[in-house]
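Hi,

I'm pasting everything inline rather than attaching a file, because the server keeps stripping attachments. The sequence lines come first, and each chain or strand is labelled.
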Amino acid sequence: MKYVGKDIGRKDGYDKATGRGLFTSDIFLPRMTYAKVLRSPYAHAKVLSIDTSEAEALPGVVAVASFKNTTNKLFNCAAPMFLTPPPHQCVLDQTVFTDTPKYIGDEIAAVAAETVEIAEKAVKLIKVEYQELPAVYDPLEAMKPDAPKVQPECANPQFNNICGGPIELAFGGDVDEAFKKCDVIAEYELVLPRVKQAQMETHGAVATYNPDGHLEVICTTQAPYPTKYILAEAFDLPYSHVTVKNPPYVGGGFGVRIGISGKAEAIAAALSMKCFRPVKYIYTREEDFTCSDSRHGGYLKMKLGATKDGKIIAQDGFAALNTGAYATFGVDLLGVCGACGTLGTYNIPNARYLGWPVYTNQETAGAMRGYGSPQGCSMVEPCIEILAEKLGMDSIELRKMNTTKEGDQNWFPYWPEGVYTTNECLDIAAEKSDYYKKHGKAKEQTGRYRRGIGIATCTHVTNAGPFCVEHNTVTARIEADGTLLVNGTFPEIGPGTSTAALQVACELIGTTFDDARLAFGNTDLTGFDVGSHATRTIYTVSKCLEALAPKLRAQIFQYVADTRKLPLDKLDMAESIITCDGKEVVTLKEIALEAHLGGRMFIETTNTTPPGLLPKYAQTAEVEVDVETGMVRCLKVVAPHDVGRAVNPPLCRGQIEGGVLQAVGYALTEEMTYQEGKGFYNKNFHSYMEPTADSRPEIEAILVEHPENNGTLGIIGIGEIGIIPTLAAINNAVYDATGVRFHEFPLTPERVLNGLKAAGITAK
Amino acid sequence: MKYVGKDIGRKDGYDKATGRGLFTSDIFLPRMTYAKVLRSPYAHAKVLSIDTSEAEALPGVVAVASFKNTTNKLFNCAAPMFLTPPPHQCVLDQTVFTDTPKYIGDEIAAVAAETVEIAEKAVKLIKVEYQELPAVYDPLEAMKPDAPKVQPECANPQFNNICGGPIELAFGGDVDEAFKKCDVIAEYELVLPRVKQAQMETHGAVATYNPDGHLEVICTTQAPYPTKYILAEAFDLPYSHVTVKNPPYVGGGFGVRIGISGKAEAIAAALSMKCFRPVKYIYTREEDFTCSDSRHGGYLKMKLGATKDGKIIAQDGFAALNTGAYATFGVDLLGVCGACGTLGTYNIPNARYLGWPVYTNQETAGAMRGYGSPQGCSMVEPCIEILAEKLGMDSIELRKMNTTKEGDQNWFPYWPEGVYTTNECLDIAAEKSDYYKKHGKAKEQTGRYRRGIGIATCTHVTNAGPFCVEHNTVTARIEADGTLLVNGTFPEIGPGTSTAALQVACELIGTTFDDARLAFGNTDLTGFDVGSHATRTIYTVSKCLEALAPKLRAQIFQYVADTRKLPLDKLDMAESIITCDGKEVVTLKEIALEAHLGGRMFIETTNTTPPGLLPKYAQTAEVEVDVETGMVRCLKVVAPHDVGRAVNPPLCRGQIEGGVLQAVGYALTEEMTYQEGKGFYNKNFHSYMEPTADSRPEIEAILVEHPENNGTLGIIGIGEIGIIPTLAAINNAVYDATGVRFHEFPLTPERVLNGLKAAGITAK
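And the predicted assembly:
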């Protein structure tokens, strides 16, 4: 192939390296105003009165919006309202502003003013009288029948505060009966922390509502079309009267802005509707950390049962995750945690999962890279180790015996036939990490530093269909000089999608790459795309291009056949040269100009629905535990991932490396710590501990390439996968180093030291 | 019909009435800089040296561009370079900056700075040493062999300074022989002034060239795609790496910015290429008046010969028009002057036309509403009157006998069969103006004020194909809530195109209008459209929608047939309700959401090439001549125009009224007066005399509706037509009032008084 598989530099590299690329905070519109938000100081309260008159009277204030003068239509600022085909439920439980704040930071009112300073001052002039209400912060506490009710409609005599009802998945036969037949049973439970996406760019939007009833929003969303639909529904506008675009760049996403960005778009729009001027609202880092979706923390419990030969015949999974004050993706995510992270990897004939998305009076949890699968994996993979130890089996062999293989029926009725290479990935991970040489040395080690190695595997989704609306539209045209221009409404949120998609486009259409360009779309001018999420973008855009390319090529070939009197079926094109029976006939440049002068543009728009696929991968992690301080360092992660076909190998490895690194933080240092009455302590990069260059392990990302049957050119997605198994692999590695199994994450020195002490391990 | 033919308010009315609509000068981009241009103080000179070092050293200056450091590739800042299919020639005779200025105002260099003030100061710091060269200003003078050469390559021993060679059109037999057979011969010659489009918004552009090699321009062009192609060629960029968009509004055009806007886009781009920052360049009103295209003035001569029964059998037309320093549309326009204005209206079996586009050292003349047809009409129609008088015939009867009728072959081999209603328009004009009652009273009148009535007809083009590239692309989609969104790359330059196009779209697709929207395109995201010019937009967009609508409807019907098990051929849709055999089945809203949830968008992109058509119309003008002061007032214009079908009657009448009013200025007050050594005196609205509310005649625009066979729903264009016959009708009316035939326009009091005095007419 000419372009697919090649190390081609990022098309957005120049813009980003030189600072010329525009992000939302760079946008300035004429007559633009600036917004600030009044947020609740209470975790749960009722607003008894609000007086905005002083704020309104402050010179320079152009609009004040609150729950009193803004739509109180219930909506969901994440995407599922428009993404979930029936019968999948969607919880509508929030309003743009509220008179009943449900977490510290909940939006009461907002001000738009000529300057940020005036807006800040005006917010302080809003007088609010609150009546504090009882609050609850822990999901298990919140589930108790007498717990304070976070969302009044969730009163349930048995289990309180359950958002959208529990997710119950079941496959095969009776699980309780199956456990009775098991020779060996393993159980593992753990507590996972709330962590943050901590993307580089905070949420932001510039919204302009004009007197013609049209709302235009330039913002940081990962999903322009869902954002358009959410805003249209929330503000009762026809969909055709809402435009959403990126500026075009988005400084990272990691799931935090699938749907609207925090509430930036809705707040800016509500204010613009009052003043008919553009309103810019950019979250501070503190607001971004504490007032937008995070990853679900909570309680997980796994039970596996096997016959003595190692066949796992029973599985029971449980998750009670803290979804915070509002649903957003809470329900769906608990589903993916069960379907992918818990039940998707192994072919277990009697399996079930019960997932509780639990409301609490904390900031909302929603989508974050991995979307429930890291949580599921984190309970399954340590349990596999425990089971293997009980069985006296090598855990990798145990895994390989039980992984889902081609033709197997597991919980998913939906996945199309694909390539199943989990076992190969496990073998590669073991081999490349010298796993067998390094593993099982806990008892031989003494002294301060103990090393260990662990392994984990899992699956996830590439594309979330059929569980959510998943379709794409791509337009491609040949310009009058023969160059290719491609558009879609999928944002470039960082991974290099725009470069890789263009590599695929040039490959499939048969044009040269250097002069081709992918232009970022907006919802006014390009067709529906659900956005950059769910490990889907390059896979689904390629699927759409696969359908589009023959149609665009047919237009060109028909033109050449007609004008050159050549047999249509013998025409071909590669690298913008048209051949007949292998002989060069004419260049695309020549016929594009000729066609243009004759009144013709070769242009094609195609809309397709791609199927969902299952990714395959495994990772080993090597750690060093300082038994004196409890400090755990991750030394190396070996990460073989089956990418089907690597469109752009460095970008592909970049995705794996980024995911692994984020998961190292998840396992060892990152945690949102709640202080009752104050809210989250970790509001910025000083107090929220991400891995730094210093704590970064060596990451060996290995691109396994077994072209996926269902993927265009064999392509399958990679975006989220790197993050999923790492925490479990590190967990297993720490056990391998110390013989102590931990149950609460991240593995801070304090937790580790306490665990080691309890087990009597010291630096002797 | 539901929407076509209805008085529907403009969709852009809110934006414009409330001041919320954005124009180019409203655009502010981060790090934007401001440009000013150093223009030649000489009409013809050679730059001996230029020193920009002081300007460059001025704090706040970020870029200085001149002929020394900018591409010197020859280009044409109007559209023909990319609009004219072979063999029609295109003259490339200008560069972005020049070291040989050819008119007062020619661009030598430009500065981009942090503020306009710094840029102005820096321009004054550029030191230029000029050697003045001999100059020529009059086309007849310029054609003499020893005249100074404006463009060196135009040295021709016989006729000097001819731009692109003369336009010679011939039809039928030997014209000289035919004149010998005529019983009556009439001749008329006149001098027409240079006039300006005087659109409300001056030229402007904001150009951003980024280090990735991509140029984006937001500007005032009427033709985004041609602008894109012109800039790509001038700066040697792949077409796919240039984006052109309107902001979206354009404050009028009238032809002055088909292609780039003056040179705003090129100057801003040249500067941005030096500093990699956005550069904004907005023409002052003075620059707009004196440094961008105007209407061609010059010398015209018509000779008509008829047999005594009134059959016109010979025609000889001549035009030598002042194209100024550069070609832009000069060559093409002389062609339209001949083909439409001169030879297109009457079916004369022996006819010829010779048109000279002549270079002079004045500002360039190019496209202006009517594009040569007003000039051609202005020599033919008075000559018809003279011929009628000589024949002793009624001039209207003479016209009607000789107009081109269905099936006639005239000079044009290209026009498809259409509806020919010129004679009906002549009759309506005569009847509605009481022509016969008012006409022919010159000799009966005495006193200071004399009244007269005149008539004129002509033709023009609707769409300039096949003489230039003429194709359109439209995309239409059904949003997930069932609303319609339409896009194309045709700007809204004022006439209400965006409203009317949407009326046609809703009519043809079968959707409701209120929630439908037309979104303005840009060249990155919407397909080729040659732009808003040549009386084409609503006609050609409708043609494209006519091709698109059945395809989009077919997608919808196929979906309904499949999901509802209904016979495909019995499905229909109107007002967004789908019926089967006349019975309501489902609403578009319902199935759009259902299809979306199922992973499907109904979306269609279509590209079509519309044929060119001939408009039909006539106008009468009534005038009152003050024989004491020479002041001519136009009292009333009756203007029946065959619009085929009026999509939006008030908008349609608005086009006619605006054209007539502009032509009243052309006939009576507007004139660019050249002062040697100083340039044009009329640089603003104080000195350039447009009609005011006070001098506005009553205009009775009559919409004649004979659906055009080739037009979608019968639609034919109207944009330019109002302006074409008015000057000739006023000319004929002044003759009718006074018995004096004038030969120089506009009819200023001085000229009229001189003419009346010479004829011995006083206010006795």
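Chain B is about 30% helix and 25% strand.

If the labels don't parse on your end, tell me and I'll reformat.
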